[in-house]
């Protein structure tokens, strides 16, 4: 049975998602990875700039090095695939015309390119990198939901040596990290949800 037939409704995917740190030693079919990222690429972003970049690591040797960079956290090598989620605003800026909707008339496209280039070139590299990271975090959330929806589990991680990971993946210095996400079939149960009550997090005006 393919994963499309097993996919979960959004509500069920959200309610059943737990952080998992031990995975079954089963590779994830490339077809499933493609389906997950076909959904993730639909994530929204301001001005449709899509600054997110996903580095999907399945090579065991590289996963071992990533585990070391993640201070020995075993879920990195337990998972059949590990996604390093990054944001690259310099790549976006270098190819800004690619983000403009193809349905616009040529003069509107030129205007959009000029406006976006002017806005972001007026920022420092660091400031626009941070701006891109806020957008990339949206895609990170979509990724976790897509993974769960297709019957896999995950564990978002921020505990890792960014410079070591940058070196391992040969990433430029301006690239920002949203996090690392091991994914695979769960071989353990996550902890029950412990979340704030609605009254604490939501104020209705």
Structural category = alpha+beta
End-to-end gap: 47 Å
Name the CATH architecture.
3-Layer(aba) Sandwich
| Total beta strand runs | 4
- Tell me the number of helical segments per DSSP (H or I, 4 or more residues long): 10
Question: Which homologous superfamily in CATH is the superfamily?
Answer: NADH Oxidase
Number of structurally distinct domains? 1
Strand content: 5-15%
Major sheet: size, sense and barrel closure?
4 strands, antiparallel
- Report the helical percentage: 40-55%
Average residue pLDDT: 96
InterPro entries: Nitroreductase (IPR029479), Nitroreductase-like (IPR000415)
Family: Belongs to the nitroreductase family.
Protein name: Nitroreductase family protein
GO molecular function: oxidoreductase activity
Structural overview:
The chain is an alpha+beta fold and 205 residues long. It has ten helices and four strands. Helix 2 crosses helix 8 (125-149). The longest helix has 25 residues, at 125-149. This is Nitroreductase family protein. Pfam families: Nitroreductase.
Draw up the topology in text.
Blueprint: H1 3-6, H2 10-16, H3 30-40, E1 52-57, H4 60-69, H5 75-78, E2 81-87, H6 89-94, H7 106-121, H8 125-149, E3 153-154, H9 162-169, E4 176-184, H10 198-201
Antiparallel strand pairs: 1-2, 2-4, 3-4
Keywords: Oxidoreductase
Pfam families: Nitroreductase (PF00881)
Organism: Peribacillus glennii
């Amino acid at each position: 049975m393919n994963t499309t037939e097993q996919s979960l409704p959004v509500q069920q995917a959200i309610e059943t998602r737990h952080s998992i740190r031990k995975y079954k030693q089963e590779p994830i079919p490339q077809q499933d990875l493609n389906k997950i990222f076909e959904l993730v690429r639909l994530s929204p972003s301001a001005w449709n700039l899509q600054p997110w970049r996903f580095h999907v690591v399945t090579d065991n040797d590289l996963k071992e090095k990533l585990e070391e960079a993640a201070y020995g956290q075993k879920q990195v090598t337990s998972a059949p695939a590990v996604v390093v989620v990054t944001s690259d605003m310099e790549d976006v800026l270098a190819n800004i015309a690619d983000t403009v909707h193809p349905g616009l008339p040529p003069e509107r496209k030129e205007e959009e390119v000029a406006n976006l280039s002017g806005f972001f070139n007026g920022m420092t590299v660091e400031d626009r990198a941070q701006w891109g990271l806020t957008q990339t975090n949206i895609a990170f959330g979509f990724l976790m939901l897509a993974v769960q929806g297709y019957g896999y589990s995950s564990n978002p991680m921020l505990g890792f040596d960014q410079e070591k990971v940058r070196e391992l993946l040969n990433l430029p210095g301006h690239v920002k990290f949203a996090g690392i996400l091991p994914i695979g079939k769960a071989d353990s149960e996550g902890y029950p949800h412990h979340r704030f009550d609605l009254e604490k997090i939501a104020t209705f005006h």
